[in-house]
Amino acid sequence: MMRPRILTAMALAVGMAMPAAAQVADLRSTTQFRVCADPANAPMSTRDGTGFENRLADLFGQQLGLPVTYDWFPSGMGFIQRTLRMGTCDVVIGYAQGDELVQNTNHYYTSVYGIVTRKDGPLAQVDRLTDPALKDQDIGVVAGTPPATHLARAGLAPNMRGADLFVDRRVEDPMGDMLAAVRAGDLGAAVLWGPLAGPQVKDDPDLQFVPLLHEEAAPRLFFRITMGVRMEEQEWKRELNSLIRRNQDDINAILAEAGVPLVDDYGRELLP
Predict the structure, then answer these.
(1) Is the pLDDT score of 7 beyond 90?
(2) Helix/strand/coil (H, E, C) string of the chain?
(3) How far is it, in rounded angstroms, from Cα 183 to Cα 83?
(4) What is the pTM of this model?
């Protein structure tokens, strides 16, 4: 879940030079379903089209009767600035609800962080970050993510083996490295975002993903995922909301097949 930042001078200049209504009309394509995406953010989005967000984009393109095209840019700082706000694409398929950089559609799924362990290992029964079994284990976690706060509060800061939050996954794969380390026994566990880790271990003979449903203290470990559009594009948001509502069963099927762990809107119960 990467959250890029601010307006560019070009975007500001465009906004000053023309009325909002004209700006909206000029930015949104009516001949293509233009998606802003990371080309190497497997299992979410990939340039080869195999990510589950690619499949969701295909579903929406079919419903709109438009070809799907992409503006590729690495997730992280500058993503929204260099894609959505530049007007080179019109929607981010997966974006956490409440982020101020985009206008969120209604959420179309809720997922949760979880712990990845070996199925045959001593941590296989762990389902909360306060479990004493974690005390003497090295634990992989992405720096700056909510589970890092929980681990530190549980006194596990010395055990954490951190990976950077913002990386160019065309050349680095910190999540893949952590999963490999758990598989090899170099890490006892890794605490990762469900939509990233769940699909990666779905058919793994050695690893399992256990959602963290019992953490009560802040920060929360579950997030509602929306589609992101430009702030001023109310009509476009309403159209996407309608598509989400009418195609929710197909959306759920794509997510389930991919192995994305789905929870209720309050992060309390794993959905079938």
Answers:
(1) no
(2) CCCCCCCCHHHHHHHHHCCHHHHHHHHCCCCCEEEEECCEECCCEECCCCCHHHHHHHHHHHHHCCCEEEEECCCCCCHHHHCHHHCCCCEEEEEECCCCCCEECCCCEEEEEEEEEECCCCCCCCCCCCCHHHCCCCEEEECCCHHHHHHHHCCCHHHEEEECCCCCCCCCCHHHHHHHHHHHCCCCEEEEEHHHHHHHHCCCCCEEEEECCCCCCCCCCEEEEEEEECCCCHHHHHHHHHHHHHCHHHHHHHHHHHCCCCECCCCCCECC
(3) 36
(4) 0.88
pLDDT at 130: 97
Specify the pLDDT at position 39: 97
The pLDDT assigned to 26 comes to 65
pLDDT higher than 60, residue 29: yes
Sketch out the chain's domains with CATH numbers: 9-109+222-258 (3.40.190.10), 110-211 (3.40.190.10)
Task: Report which of 144, 143, 112, 142 is spatially closest to residue 128, judged by C-alpha positions.
Answer: 112
Nearby residues of 88 by Cβ (< 8 Å), 6 or more positions away: 34, 36, 71
Closest CA to 231 of 104, 72, 51: 104
Q: How many CA atoms lie within 13 A of 51 on its CB side?
A: 20
Q: Sign of the CA dihedral 266, 80, 227, 166?
A: negative
Least confident range of 165-169, 255-259, 266-270: 165-169
